[in-house]
């Protein structure tokens, strides 16, 4: 079936650098694309979402980019901090927020 | 209150046992979900309840039985599980209104089947 996936399983960055986490999707019918952060021993935590009719959305220190031409989603984290260390999942849903599919996850490791 | 509370946090059960996982939210969300997550894997959707009615069942074996007693509570009844069912079981809720994709997750129940 259609799925949401990720390119890199592990990303290691220096504290203070910017991080970019990527995701490829195949379901063009999704209304929302969402990024979640999951720390060890915890449930996923919502970071930011973007509607399918948008290209870019910014939050606090995070930016999500959507490229519908190549079906690519990315999460940019500015000035990465040790507290950003976690596994990041992309996901897609319909307009009512019915969570359907998570991507494979990327582990972000921040070196002090 | 923006929390989804799951109990118990940890559960060890035998293959002949019957147990239940519980989930509670007081955010007024009308959609609630059960996910299963194996180690180093993404959460996999099991069930979706929308306005207390089961709307999605992702071909989950009948040894897992969901129940939504009211808009704040979601249960997952377990019976005759297999060792491969050991996983982190996550509950989530969302407003279930158009224009909102944010879902809130609980901390999960770590289930071990022996």
Task: Write the SSE topology.
The complex is a heterodimer of chains A (112) and B (114).
Chain A (H helix, E strand, L loop, with lengths): L3 E2 L4 E5 L4 E7 L6 E7 L6 E7 L4 E3 L3 E6 L4 E6 L8 E8 L5 E4 L3 E6 L1
Parallel strand pairs in A: 2-11
Antiparallel strand pairs in A: 1-3, 3-8, 4-5, 4-9, 6-7, 7-8, 9-10, 9-11
Chain B lengths: L3 E4 L2 E4 L4 E8 L5 E7 L6 E7 L2 E5 L6 E7 L2 E7 L7 E8 L9 E2 L3 E5 L1
Parallel strand pairs in B: 2-11
Antiparallel strand pairs in B: 1-3, 3-8, 4-5, 4-9, 5-6, 7-8, 9-10, 9-11
The succession of helices and strands of chain A, N to C, reads EEEEEEEEEEE
Residues in helices of chain B, as a percent range: under 10%
Any low-confidence stretches of chain B, pLDDT <50, length ≥5? none
Overall structural class of chain A, as computed from helix and strand content, comes to: mainly beta
Unreliable stretches of chain A: none
- Fraction in helix of chain A: under 10%
Strand content of chain B: over 45%
User: What is the averaged pLDDT score of chain B?
Assistant: 93
Shape of chain A: globular
Count of alpha/pi helices of chain B: 0
What Rg of chain A, in angstroms, do the CA atoms define? 13 Å
Mean pLDDT of chain A: 89
Largest interface, C-beta closer than 8 angstroms, per-chain residues: A-B, 24 and 30 residues
**Main beta sheet strand tally, sense and closure of chain B:** 7 strands, mixed
Shape category of chain B: globular
In DSSP terms (H or I, runs of 4 or more residues), the helix count of chain A works out at 0
Oligomeric description of these chains:
heterodimer
Taken as a percent bin, the fraction of beta residues of chain A is over 45%
N-to-C series of helices and strands of chain B: EEEEEEEEEEE
